[in-house]
Amino acid sequence: MEFLLTKIKENLNEQMLLLTISNPRKTEEIKKYNIRPVLVKDKLMFQSAAYTKTQVFHKNLKKNELVEELERLLPSYKQVQLQTVSSELTALINKKGKAAIKVKKQNNVVKAQMQTDKSHLLHNRTKKYILPEGTVVPFLKDLGVMTAEGKIVRTKYDKYRQINRFLEFIEDILPHLPQNREITILDFGCGKSYLTFAMYYYLKELKGYDIRIIGLDLKKDVIKNCSRLAVKYGYDKLNFYEGSIEEFEGVTQVDMVVTLHACDTATDYAMYKALRWGASVILSVPCCQHELNKQIAASEFEPITDYGILKERFCALATDGIRAKILEEQGYDTQILEFIDMEHTPKNLLIRAIHRKKQSDKKKEKAAQQVDAFCKQFGFTPTLWKLLQEEGEEGGAHDE
């Protein structure tokens, strides 16, 4: 036992991958321990995960604390396995406390990789963001997200995460945008334009795309400030205009439409415009879905509709589900994704629609039937569906 403990102590460093203690001698003991090296504020610690039948308990230990824990634990278990960058040790411990130990050398490829990148030190690693902290991004500094030294302002960290998460969505849809001509992107309800500037910076400055981005909002002072910043940075193809979504007629072709937190039916008008322009990609984070809340009429759902907060949440989900199905009926592959963590904002769903290259009349017809049946059941007449029906179109947004 002393020899086994000595071998383990020798390997309590960054070269260690995993220490597993299992097969307890008594049934009431913890079933298994998994112990890994972790970095906490650049200091080496060891994370212990203790497994019962139904739960797992975690705690971080300093090296001396872990050694004391091992001295207590090892006599109560029959098996120990220690994996390091260079070797793998297996020990079987008998009732008398004697350990039969076998050591096997680690694969050279694994060894080289681990020694180079230390990827096994999982805890407290800095997440790789598209816009990394420490690199000064002018618009993030001027918008109050980043300091002049490139550090993220503590109270703006959620906004920083949101911007990077949004850019990950942009990165995903790049294969669906034109590659051989100018790309036109329209951002409805752009507000302070954190994400509008992020899109331009990422696509133009970092990726080298030929793009034109238009931001539209009703607030005159916001548009004035965004326009000033665009000129300051030399973003000559980033333009901001004051106006409503319904009345905007400034372009004839748009490749991608973005609508973030456009209130209530403004999202529907933005989607309708996107369909009429034949946009290849639609990204929408809906907000304030009040329309269906006023329309719902389904007595069998009174356990929901009799309670305001439940009624509101149900109608918000119904609104976005209907929108997603309508986009499918219009020839798009549609997903509803989590935008940012639920704990940061309730406005956390993103509708992503990508126009299908191969159209399926059967799929369109099925989506239309689903929308009709659902709306009929609850007495809904959603704006987007109404706009399309009034126009009398049966097919998709693109001419095939």
TrEMBL record:
Coiled coil: none annotated. InterPro entries: Methyltranfer_dom (IPR025714), SAM-dependent_MTases_sf (IPR029063). GO terms for molecular function: methyltransferase activity. PANTHER family: METHYLTRANSFERASE DOMAIN-CONTAINING PROTEIN, PTHR13369. Keywords: Methyltransferase, Transferase. Residues 158-295 form the Methyltransferase domain. Pfam families: Methyltransf_32. Signal peptide: none annotated. It comes from the Bacteria. One of its GO terms (biological process) is methylation. The keyword Ion transport does not apply. This is SAM-dependent methyltransferase.
